[in-house]
Fold each of these.
Amino acid sequence: MDEKRYLELLRRTLLNEIYIENDVRFLYLFATMSVHGNIDGNVVRQIGRHKADWLNGVKDARREGRPWWLINYTDSNAQPQTLNLRSVCDFNHTMVGRLRLENLEKCLDVIRLENIPGDVAETGAWRGGASIFMKGYLQAYALADRNVWVADSFEGMPVPSLPQDAGWDFSPAKVPILAVSLEEVQENFRRYDLLDESVKFLKGWFCDTLPQAPIEKLSLLRLDGDLYESTMDALNALYDKVVPGGFVIVDDYGDFEPCHKAITEFRDTHGITAPLEEIDWSGVFWRKTESRPG
Ligand SMILES: C[S@@+](CC[C@H](N)C(=O)[O-])C[C@H]1O[C@@H](n2cnc3c(N)ncnc32)[C@H](O)[C@@H]1O
């Protein structure tokens, strides 16, 4: 079907799978420069042949939404070293990986086929990729009357303020690559020809923007704020707006202990018994069965 092919092409583009050799080229260039080595033009040209293990590593990581920018090497004193090249080698428009984008499409298929009403929302957008995918889906299936809510500080992660987030500081001073401006995200939507008035940006900390956001109902809520505080703020403000039969997707359940804790606590407190379904090593989702929480 044309819609499926469009969405597969959109997914490949958001994940930078089509030109994935270029990611490995950057990795090779920066890794070589970092150890003051000589760059070999043949390696750059035929990177897949010369760095097959790196290429396979990047492909696997992109499928699973795992980090791939750490390079292990041995220095001139024969000591093992690890280089973190994320800030110069991470160019895809989403970090969620192929499996989680495929899950997103499946959830949206159910929403479409079962006529589950409501907008879709993502809390934690980074460069916008997963939200762009949702907008692409709605566009492909002529469901453009549904809004896509894109919530983010557009300034990166907050400095942890709760004990549950202690030790998980990914704020801009520590991880600057997570700070992506609103203008940059809008430009990314525009590049996919998917920026229109149905894409609603909520700029600011979740605790300030989400409780007063003019969202009526949601068929899908995608949580991707990593921290306990960010996950809890999103659930407290928006869970009630998810309609029965709607989906709650949690990107960081397996990756971030604070997020895992927030989900467990929220589900326990509100007596949510709908089973958590595993997407991959990090992502999970459940389908809301109750009409109101707790
Ligand atoms: C892991 S990234 C999101 C990845 C994204 N969904 C994708 O498709 O690649 C986390 C994002 O959440 C945002 N964020 C986390 N906690 C937040 C909060 N409390 N308020 C506003 N934004 C927050 C950060 O700015 C960052 O852009």
Amino acid sequence: MISTAFEYERATSLDDALAKLAAAGGAGKLIAGGHSLVPLMKLRLSEPTVLIDIANIPDFAGIREADGRIEIGAGTTHHDVAISALLRARCPVMAEAAAAIGDQQVRNRGTLGGSLAHADPAADYPAVMLALDADFHLKGTNGWRVVKAGDFFQGMLTVDLAPDEILAKVTFAPVRAAAYAKLHQRASRFAIVGVAAALAVSDGTISSVRIGLTGASSSPSRLENVEAALTGRDATAGAFSAAAGIAGDGVEDLNEDIHASADYRRAMIRVFTRRALDGALARIAG
Ligand SMILES: Cc1cc2nc3c(=O)[nH]c(=O)nc-3n(C[C@H](O)[C@H](O)[C@H](O)COP(=O)(O)OP(=O)(O)OC[C@H]3O[C@@H](n4cnc5c(N)ncnc54)[C@H](O)[C@@H]3O)c2cc1C
């Protein structure tokens, strides 16, 4: 199928994009990489009459560190996240997750902001955003607001983002001891189960841990029972093994589809939680 007819406009700034959105009166859609929106339009599940292209807004893309926090512009492509020397040195889990997205064409066009705003249940970044406790900076016609990753994702393809708002950037404190591990679909590489773990270890003891899960259910979530089981424990293989053994126990709405049954997903949450924890710990040494 082909999409319904639409006008195309190119925004020159965030404010210009917001003005164009307002002028479209609810019938406009932002387009960044187009890798999620265009398929929906071709299926006529989305029928905007105006497409507002935000891919070429100056300063909308870029990765920097300031005041101890990493800032990534929402227009940054997955490719640029994956190859970022700053991220690879300071917070390698972000680059690791980006490199695991789709194929090179998808990574060249798809953007961090597009992925987070679309909130596909099988997208990779949401697990990492939860593990890093990222802040999402939204600009709307009434100014800026900041939403925690844990509050942003609200359900299947549903986020805390008003129709007159743009996700401008995400910020987070870099964590070196963090890793992402996923079981991916063979064709698309979307996550069947994806787990991001971020550790803080002091004198061999886990002082804090955050674990984000994606792919397994309708929206991303934290594995709080695993976090509780690990906090205050020594960072040992035995502790990881025991904690990973209860991963997925509290997850209610496990997906069941052609890629994996709910039972298989639950088993894989355990396997990939263990892999993410091992990967995070290895980064403390490495
Ligand atoms: C073959 C294929 C394989 C893929 N594999 C994976 C994978 O393995 N893992 C994975 O995570 N993803 C995967 N994806 C999805 C890919 O990462 C998309 O790029 C991403 O989900 C959407 O980003 P985009 O920039 O293309 O957004 P678009 O398609 O342009 O936009 C998506 C939605 O977000 C809105 N939007 C875009 N930017 C903003 C913004 N800054 N503020 C507010 N709203 C905004 C748009 O209006 C639209 O509703 C795959 C896609 C394809 C086609």
